[in-house]
Amino acid sequence: MRLKTFWIVSLVLVSSLPSFGWGQTGHRIVGEIATSQLKPCTEKKIAAILQGESLAMCSTWMDEVKSDKTYDHWDPWHYCTIGDHQSYAEAGSPSQGDILVKLDEITRELETKKFKHGGEANAIKILVHLLGDLHQPLHVGRGDDKGGNDFKIKYFGKSSNLHRIWDSDLIDGTQLSYTEYSQHLLRTTPQDRVKQHQSGSYLDWANESKVLRMAGIYPPADLENLSYSYGYENYSRLEERLVQAGVRLAMVLNRIYGC
Ligand SMILES: [Zn+2]
User: What is the CA(170)–ligand 1 centre distance, in A?
Assistant: First the structure.
């Protein structure tokens, strides 16, 4: 296939798919911010395991493998469901696992070096991706709209849905690359704020997503189009989640690999 045709076909396919997690830029921002907070020895060990690939670039691997049916059973690992009036314990985890179950498993694999998902590099790629997804508020779904995928709404006049707006429309709307956006976020986040973010458990961070989901990110049901005012109200929330995901990923990796 000629390159130009390939890109046209790819873009058509991507734009017609349901959204599954932060888009490429969002995941890469999380990986890039994490890299900036790694201890030198952690960074060295991870670079060797990933054979030089950056956390930013490997962060989307879990989405890339979706085109291979072998990985179909991984689809439910990108999210969890906690209803508005439930705790996670009350909601329970499904038999196929969910994002919290898998984050615990992968962390244990990295700590014990007993790998079940194809080795240490894959385990790191899964951790990078899922810790990012956990901070996208619509990855902790309320259980009735596929994490906002069924909440159809236009964004600047183009067909979209609430999940996709949070995955990629808002981020892509800035027209910044992942490195530009990461640098901006790092420059505007004081170090004491970084330290404040670096606490809590996976469950705490899932609950933060749930709280955010319930705190007004759902537009009124009769609204047909979102534009500047939605961004104005939500960019600071979205950017804080990207920063939190990145610095917490660094915290987890430093705990496992730091010396
Ligand atoms: Zn995902």
Answer: 17
Question: What residues does the ion ligand 1 have nearby, CB within 5 Å?
Answer: 20-21, 78, 133
| 235-254 tens-digit pLDDT | 999 999 999 999 999 999 99
Query: How many angstroms from the chain centroid is the CA of residue 165?
Result: 13
pLDDT, tens only, 56-74: 999 999 999 998 998 999 9
Name the residue type at position 134.
L
Q: Ligand 1 centroid vs 84 CA: distance in angstroms?
A: 22
The CATH number of 31-257 is 1.10.575.10
CB 5 within 8 A of CB 13: no
- For residue 122, the tally of other CB atoms under 10 A from its CB is 18
Calculate the alpha carbon distances from 169 to 13, 223, 227 in Å: 16, 17, 10
Nearest to 22 by CA among 177, 130, 101: 130
Global pTM? 0.91
